[in-house]
Amino acid sequence: MNIIVSIKQVPDTTEVRIDPETGTLVREGVPSIINPFDENAIEAALQLVEKHGGKVTVLTMGPPQAEQALREAIAMGADEGILVCDRAFAGSDTLATSYTLARAVRKIGDFDLILCGKQAFDGDTAQVGPGLAEHLGLPQVTYAIGLEVEGKKLQAKRLLEDRYEMVEARLPALVTVVKQINEPRHAGLRGVMKARKAEIVKWTAADLEADVTRCGLNGSPTNVLRVFAPSRHTKGERIEGEASEAAVELYEKLRTAQVL
Ligand SMILES: Cc1cc2nc3c(=O)[nH]c(=O)nc-3n(C[C@H](O)[C@H](O)[C@H](O)COP(=O)(O)OP(=O)(O)OC[C@H]3O[C@@H](n4cnc5c(N)ncnc54)[C@H](O)[C@@H]3O)c2cc1C
Question: If one looks up domain 2-219 in CATH, what number appears?
Fold first, then answer.
């Protein structure tokens, strides 16, 4: 079976700060990683191909440096990487992103399954997977914690807040996966060597025969107005001393603050 894994390169969120002056993310000097949920999607794809045969294609839309994410995925075991990259794609919201990725999937053509992460660590919308399925007219299953394929059918176990749900869908389909589905493998030395030499396919808007009015800023009906960190709460106050006296003092403070 041929599986496409749609991956996003994101800034390592443990390192990201927000500039209090401009309200934008400080990206300078911040290392980039494969979106962690997408590593689970890659692992799920590799396991399915190990079981059923076929190949894993990793696909990303991003700036030229997103090529590195594709190489990391190839080092894990993916067979080939495609970078969708053009100035026309800059400023894409989730609608434009999923439209552009859908054009790339149509160009790939032969596939049985598309896997995505549940959501991206930076954008956090969880809209691109479902949007991609819609553009392609595919059945979609979100929040998969388990995945089995038999012939032209897939069975997925979905992780909901208080229960699991078993769903069946016909292939081709799109599935988004949660962290708990597996433990992504580390790249071995052979994988790293293969990734270094791998040829990354690069497609522009023209290659995709994409309608540029549906790409990038032109095709994005939404705009991020501001990104900001929540204001810090004032520091708590510790009341020391005997419990009975501390309780009276606490009562007085709460009354003064009109909490009681
Ligand atoms: C309202 C709004 C306006 C925005 N405006 C801008 C803007 O002006 N400029 C700008 O740079 N960004 C902008 N963004 C961010 C941009 O839309 C997102 O980075 C992008 O669309 C992906 O959305 P997400 O990060 O929420 O991914 P999610 O939907 O959370 O990602 C889910 C899954 O989709 C797949 N996926 C997501 N993105 C990609 C990708 N690029 N390639 C391959 N697979 C992918 C991955 O499998 C991922 O796990 C905006 C976002 C929003 C919500």
Answer: 3.40.50.620
